[in-house]
Design brief:
single chain, 233 residues, mainly alpha, Helix Hairpins, three-stranded mixed beta sheet, rod-shaped, binds zinc ion
Length: 233
C-alpha cells in the first residue's frame, strides 16, 4: 500500500481521536460544575430573606393596627360614654378621635400593601423552590450522563489508539516524522487529497511526477505550495 494511503488512514484515526479527546476535556470541565445551581440557590435565599423581612413587618403592622384600634375604642368610649361634660375636653377628644382614625387608616393601608407584597414573595419562593428541585434533578442526571459518556469515550480512545499503533507500523519513521510535523502545523490535517490534478488543501496544480509518487511511493510527498502530504487514490 502506498504510504500516502496509510497516512491518510492515520489522519482519519487521529481526527477521530482528537474529537473524542476534545469531548473528554469538555466533559471534565463540566463535571462537578455547580456554579449555575449555586447562583439559583443564592437568588432563592435572597427571596427568602425578603419574605422574612416582609413577614416581620406584617406582624409589626398588625400589632400597630390593633393598638390603634384599642386607642380608637378608648377615645370613642370616653367621647360618647357621658363621663366627660366639659365642652373644651369634648372638643379635644373629637380632634383626637379624628387623628386616631387617620392613623388607623394609614396603618391599615400600609398593612394591606405589605400583605400583597408578602403573598407575591411567598409565591415566588415556592415557585423558586420547585424549580430548584427540578434543576437539581436535571443536573444530577446530566452528570450521570456525562460520566457514562466519558467511560464510553475512554474505551473508544483506547481502541482507536490501538488501531493507530497498528496502522503506523506500516510507515517508515521518516514519513511518520513528516506527518507529525505537518499535522502539528496544520491543526490536525496533514494529508490532502489530490483531485483532478489539484491539491485539495490549497488548490494548486500539481506536477504529474508528484502525483505519481504520491500514488505509489513509499515516502511521503508534500505539496510544493502548502506542504500538505499528498494522497492520490
Ligand atoms: Zn497544497
Amino acid at each position: 500500500m502506498a504510504v500516502s494511503r496509510i497516512l491518510y488512514d492515520l489522519q482519519n484515526l487521529d481526527l477521530l481521536l482528537d474529537e473524542a479527546k476534545g469531548r473528554v476535556s469538555e466533559i471534565e470541565c463540566s463535571l462537578g460544575d455547580r456554579d449555575e445551581l449555586k447562583r439559583r440557590e443564592e437568588a432563592l435565599e435572597e427571596l427568602r430573606d425578603r419574605m422574612r423581612d416582609l413577614d416581620r413587618k406584617q406582624r409589626s403592622l398588625d400589632l400597630s393596627s390593633k393598638s390603634t384600634k384599642d386607642r380608637l375604642d378608648a377615645v370613642e368610649t370616653k367621647l360618647y360614654g357621658g363621663t366627660v361634660a366639659s365642652p373644651r375636653e369634648l372638643q379635644d377628644l373629637g380632634r383626637e378621635l379624628e387623628n386616631v382614625k387617620r392613623n388607623l387608616k394609614e396603618v391599615d393601608e400600609e398593612a394591606l400593601e405589605n400583605l400583597v407584597s408578602l403573598e407575591e414573595t411567598e409565591q415566588q419562593v415556592s415557585k423558586g423552590e420547585e424549580e430548584l428541585v427540578r434543576e437539581e434533578a436535571a443536573w444530577s442526571e446530566d452528570q450521570y450522563g456525562m460520566e457514562v459518556e466519558r467511560r464510553e469515550l475512554r474505551t473508544r480512545i483506547g481502541g482507536l489508539e490501538q488501531q493507530r499503533r497498528q496502522v503506523a507500523k506500516g510507515v517508515k519513521a521518516h514519513s511518520l516524522g513528516v506527518y507529525e510535523r505537518v499535522r502539528r502545523a496544520k491543526e490536525g490535517r496533514a494529508v490532502s487529497m489530490v483531485e483532478q490534478g489539484l491539491c485539495r488543501a490549497c488548490g494548486v496544480t500539481l506536477p504529474t511526477h508528484s502525483i505519481q509518487r504520491a500514488r505509489s511511493g513509499d515516502e511521503a510527498v508534500q505539496c510544493g505550495s502548502c506542504s500538505s502530504i499528498l494522497y492520490a487514490s
